[in-house]
Structure formats: structure tokens, C-alpha cells
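okkk here we go again. third time trying to get the copper (II) ion bound version out, last two times i messed up the smiles copy paste (missing a bracket lol). double checked this time i swear
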Amino acid sequence: MDHVASPSRCCLSLFFLVVAITLLVRSWHPPSKTASSFLDCSQYSLWCTSKNLIQAKSNLHDKPLLIKQPQVVLPDYSSKTHQHPLDPLTIQEINQVLAILSSFPPFLSSFPSINSVSLDEPEKSQVLNWTIGHPLPPRKAFVIAYLEGQSHILSLDLASNKVTSHEIKSNSGYPILSKEDMTVAAQVPFSNPGFNRAVTDRGVALSDTVCVALAPGWYGREEEGRRIVKVQCFSSQGTSNYYMRPIEGLTITVDIDKKQVVRISNTGREIPIPHATNTDYKYDSFNNSPKEGLLNMRPINLISMVQPKGPSFSVEDGHVVKWANWEFHLRPDPRAGMIISRAMVRDIESGAMRSVMYKGMASELFVPYMDPSVGWYFKTYIDAGEYGMGLSAFSLVPLNDCPRNAYYMDGVFAAADGRPFVRSNMICVFERYAGEIGWRHYDVNNKVRESRPKVTLVTRMAASVGNYDYIIDWEFQMDGLIRIKVGLTGMLMVKGTPLQNMNQVLPHENTSGTLVSENVIGVLHDHFVTFYLDMDVDGPVNSFVKVNLVKEETSPGESPRKSYLRTKRHVARSEREAQIKLKLYDPSEFHVVNPEKKSRVGNPSGYKVVPGATAASLLDINDPPQVRGAFTNNQIWVTPYNRSEEWAGGLLVYQGKGDDTLAVWSERDRAIEKRDIVVWYTLGFHHIPCQEDFPIMPTVSASFELKPVNFFERNPILRVPPCQE
Ligand SMILES: *[C@@H]1O[C@H](CO)[C@@H](O)[C@H](O)[C@H]1NC(C)=O
Ligand SMILES: *[C@@H]1O[C@H](CO)[C@@H](O)[C@H](O)[C@H]1NC(C)=O
Ligand SMILES: *[C@@H]1O[C@H](CO)[C@@H](O)[C@H](O)[C@H]1NC(C)=O
Ligand SMILES: [Cu+2]
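finally!!
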């Protein structure tokens, strides 16, 4: 639901909220009661000033409701004891990692830069065997460090304070670019007189110049053997949205380790810097006096969902989320952003918790821009492995990014020097009632009328990877469905152009995108987000079944009908049989089933992957970016579980050649029938920019679903009570 508040009301409540958040959100403690399996409808009502709603009854809209939240302890990271084998590393543990690495012989003479410190998950069998109250499997840390051209992959045992495995990789690919690397890369050009001249020649003051560090992709031997960053710059004069004011054609190749400029390409001298007018998006950059009117639209009053009895979910021991019939473990991760583990749903018949998914996360992104020119060809980002979705996820904005009564979870990550830092409010968890219907019927004959509201639980993060923002939601429904949604917003990556108006474009001329403002082209590009889904439907041993719809034709005289549809089930035996390209005229359902677990009437228990609106990559399969982004060659893949195969673009992606991708693994064609299997699904977007995307894009979303199929004996939300006032 869009939240467009009238200015005065909004600011007032935001003020209260800032105060309230400071005091309370960090100390939010989940209600200790266990969430009821059934919906207590009095908890869901709309807080809205339209006359036909709750306003008169509760009159809640004058009070900052956050004050009503239960108040308990502030999280104390120093003394945190682990409650679950998959809990992320704490500040204390990251400090311990730093201490172990500092006395590790290969790092004694010079200490590496630390690119990633995260939980080295216990073996799956250990996690599955663990139950609450039992000792945790040994705590381990997984570290990627970089020193003098070499990537070090380490596993550390935190109980014995030892490095238990150490591997040096010096072939294709480097670790994630650290924040420190990006800062250095963006500064290096300023010590180069040629660069400074190029900038000032364009009429941009050095003090107004903002430079960003761009991953170079991989385009052959020339750039191999050193870690490079492509730096491009913008004018921030007169706007906070410098991305709309590119210094076009100026690309500086920087050797990040030597901190040297390798090459300056300056091809856009004749291209003006687009003006600053109308580029800003900050609320206080507009004239918001009531007389002017912000939007000249009918104002929308402050809108929110209220839960007078508080939320119905709880977050136990910091990471175990329990809501309605769901239970799962949730943790922040520097690379994936957000990891859902051990997702289980309660069986309505037996009351038992049943496994659905062992682990789910955004594994990799691929964002190729469609402009082969010198300043643009390399823009083919693989964001999770080049920048880190978690490292790029900043604090969410209460009431705007997440609604009232959201629970906020902090990320604890390591900086390049190995020291821990806290990324506060990085993930939020909230219940959503968006006015949707769970199920309904009116029977015209016996006048039976039944209807149920749909309430869901959402976990959300938003990564700001440079200009773009990716909102990632995992939404859980009471009927067992999980919806995974990606929202795109933030700034287009734009190209400066001499063009002011489309009437200057000759009919045969091609631009690399849409003219979105004077001198600004929004360049055509794609976004792909590949999800890792380790499905464990009623246990790890599953099969992948393609349920194909085929047209059958009747024999002459058999029926008045000529044709009808039938389903044909095909169990994929090996990986290649599960490389799926979606086809509108050859449709299939994609089931993950447990062949050993049958329903009362004999159907195998399953979950299906339900593709949403999605786009496929149309690049040449041998184009260097597509080789690196080969995990998007199919929309669905299935691999046998292998704890070393989690990152679809490979472990070391930066400048990687694409020799460690999901496509490479899948070509081994391993057996996947009646195994522990992992499903990979790619959500894709073709983005043809339009003027509405300027100066900042309204959110565009797409989603896919994991939906129970013969998993429950019948509709699992039959007994949800109706809502009554
Ligand atoms: C499972 O846990 C029990 C105790 O909780 C332990 O005795 C047993 O060895 C464990 N099994 C495996 C396979 O780890
Ligand atoms: C524009 O694109 C068309 C079709 O791809 C091509 O034939 C034509 O040569 C292009 N024009 C220019 C000026 O590049
Ligand atoms: C597990 O993955 C790694 C990395 O791709 C690979 O080297 C290894 O052979 C895989 N193991 C199996 C059993 O497929
Ligand atoms: Cu886009």
C-alpha cells in the first residue's frame, strides 16, 4: 500500500516516531505469548481517517502507537549466547575471528584485507538433528581475505581458536569489493592531473565531483592479473541526485591494490553535463507550502495498519520467527542479505511441524546494460558477488519502508580491517493486511455467505547497490504459500547525450535507451535475481517433477470436443532434465515432491515453484557477460545439495570469468531423483526506462511463489475465524 501522507500530519508523526524509535525499537521484545494458530480478527483493523472505518471507534490516530509496544531489554551483543546453530556471528565472535587471524602464521608479516566474515554453517545433518535445549554444534566462521593478489578462503573453529582449513585461490575472480576498496578507488583519480583537467574542462568543479566505483566485469586478458575498478564521475552541483548529472564518457580504470590510475578514457567532451533542475528527490527540496500543493492531487490522509493487541508473531532468541502456522530462522548475511532457514509449517490435521525449505536466499544478481560503447560495455553487474547484498543493505525507515509494529533486526558484519560493525534495522519483520481476501463464497441457493481476510507475514530488506535499490520480501501465508518478491527502485543509471528532444533524433538513428530528460538517456538494461531454494519437503529426500500440460485430440466421433488438456508427469532424473526455460505455449508446473510421503488419497506431498512475470536473458550465450551470468541461461535449475554450491555466479565473482557458475555445475548432470535437491529460480526484468523513472523510479516489483501442492489434506485455512467488530 502506498503511503502518501499529507505533509503536516506526516511530519508530526514522523517526529514522534523518531523519538519513539530511538527509545523503543531497539528494545522491542516479542510478545511472550505463542502466536495463536487462528486469526484473532480484532487485532487487524485499518487505521484510516475515512469516515466508514475504525476512526470513530478507536480514535487511535492521534497517538503514536509505538509507545504501546512492550518494552524489555536492549540487545546486549557482548553477552549473547547462541540459541540456534544457524545464528549469525556476534560482535564477540567476529572479534575472536580477528584475533585468530592476527596470529595465523601466513598473516603475521602483513595482515590481509578481510572481505567477508560469516557463519560457517554446521553440516546440514547436525542442524537437522539439533533440538532446542541441546548443545549447539561447534561454532565456525567462514572468512574470505585478500592479500597481495591472492584470495584466502578460511574456515575457523571458534571453540579451539584454530584455522581448520585454508585455501589460496589465485586464478579467476576476486572477493567482494569492500567499502574501503570503493572509497579508495573513488579517491585515486583526484591525485591525477589529467583527470582533474578532464573534469574542470567539462565545467565541473572538483569540489562538486562525486565518483563511484564500478565493477569492470571480465573482458579478456588485458585486464587480468590485477584488481581493477572502473571509476565514473558526476556533478553534485545543485542536487543531491548526482546520478542524473553524469560526466559522460569519462572512465578511469584504477588498479585498486596499487592505488594507481591505469587508464583514462575521455570520449564525451562534446556531451554537456545535464542540468540540475528537477533532479532532486529529497522531500525538503520541494516547495511544500500548502498553497503550492505538492502534487496537485487529492491528498491521502495518513494511512497505516493498527494492531491494538500488538503483533501476533514473535522473534524468539533473536532469530526464530514464529507466526500463525509458520516457524523459521532468519538471519542477516553480508552477501545474500537475508537468509531464511528451516522453514516449517504446522500441519492442521496432526499439529506437527513439517519441513518445507531448509534454506532460501537471494544467491546472485545479474544486471547487464545494453550499450556496447567504450564507457558502457562493461556495465554488467553481478551485484551479490561484486558488492554484497547485505553489505549494501542500510537501515530501513520505520513507517515508510516497514509498517507500524515491525520488528527490526540488526546485521553484524566485519569491516576490511576485520573489526565488527552493526548495521542497525537492516531487516524488518511485520504482518501485512492489505485488504485482500483469503477465501470466500456466497451460495445463491442456501444463502450461505462466508469470507476470510488474508493476513500475511513479511520479512524485508532493501539493498542500495550504488544507484539502484532492491527490496527483497519473503512473504508467508497461512495457507502455506511463500511469495518471494523483488522490488526495484532508486536511480536509473543514465547516459549523458547532446540530445535535448526526440525531434533531434533522425529516424534511422539508435539511442541506447529512452531520453528521460534533456541530455539524459535512461539506458536499456535487464535485472535478474537468482534465488537459492534448498527445498526439504517433509525431509531432505525429494524429487523434481515437471507436470506438463499437453493437448490431446479426440478421435472422430468420440466426443463433440476436438481437443482437451491432460497432464504428463516427468520426474527429472538428472540435472540437465531440470534445466527449464519457461514457455507460454508449452506450459508446465514444477513440483518438488517427497515420493515417500503420500497424502491420505495417495498423492506425494509437494511444493511447486510458481513462476511470476519474468524475463529471460537474450544476450548471446557466448557474450562475456552472459558467460559470467550463465546462471540466468535457464529460469529454473535443480542441483543435488552440495554445501560448496550456494553462489550461482561462483564464490569469487569480481573479474571472474564465469568458470564456477551454476551453469557449469549443472552440466555435470548429476542424479537428482530421490535426493536432497536445491532448486534455483531466476526472477527477471527487462527495463526499458521511461520518463516516470526520472529522477527516481517508482517501485516496480515481480514475484514468484512456493505453493503447497497435495502437501495438506485439504484447505489449511478452513478454520480461520471470520473478522468481526
Ligand atoms: C543427534 O543428536 C544426538 C543427541 O542430541 C546425538 O547423540 C547423536 O549422535 C546425533 N546424531 C548425529 C548424526 O549427529
Ligand atoms: C540502428 O539500428 C538498426 C537496426 O539494428 C541498424 O540497421 C542501423 O544501422 C542503426 N543505425 C545507426 C545510425 O547506428
Ligand atoms: C561440490 O561442489 C564443488 C564445487 O562446485 C565440487 O568441486 C564438488 O565436486 C561437488 N561435489 C559433488 C559430490 O558434486
Ligand atoms: Cu532497471
